[in-house]
Design brief:
By secondary structure, the chain is α+β, with helices and mostly antiparallel strands. The protein has a domain of 48 residues. It is 30% helix and 20% strand. The chain is built from one helix and three strands; from the N terminus they run βββα. The protein starts with 7 loop residues before the first strand and ends in a 15-residue tail after the last helix.
Length: 70
C-alpha cells in the first residue's frame, strides 16, 4: 500500500515503544517496538480505518500531507 497520509512518529518513554499518529484520520494510531514495525503497523491500521469508514458510509479524507505547510 502506498501511504500518502502524513505520519507523526515518536518514541514514547511511558509506553516504551514507537507511536505513529495519522492526524488526517481521526483516532488512527499504531505502535511498534521498532520504527519500522510501527510504520508497518500504521499501514495496516490506515487500511482498516479506510475500510471501516467506507463500510459505515463515512467520508474518507483525501491525504493532504504536510499539515504545517500553510
Amino acid at each position: 500500500m502506498l501511504i500518502r497520509y502524513e505520519l507523526i512518529i515518536y518514541w514514547s518513554e511511558a509506553d516504551d515503544t514507537f507511536i505513529v499518529e495519522v492526524p488526517e484520520l481521526p483516532g488512527c494510531k499504531s505502535d511498534g517496538q521498532t520504527y519500522q514495525e510501527a510504520v508497518a503497523n500504521a499501514e495496516v491500521i490506515i487500511q482498516e480505518w479506510i475500510d471501516t469508514a467506507k463500510e459505515l458510509g463515512r467520508a474518507v479524507p483525501e491525504p493532504e500531507g504536510r499539515l504545517l505547510s500553510a
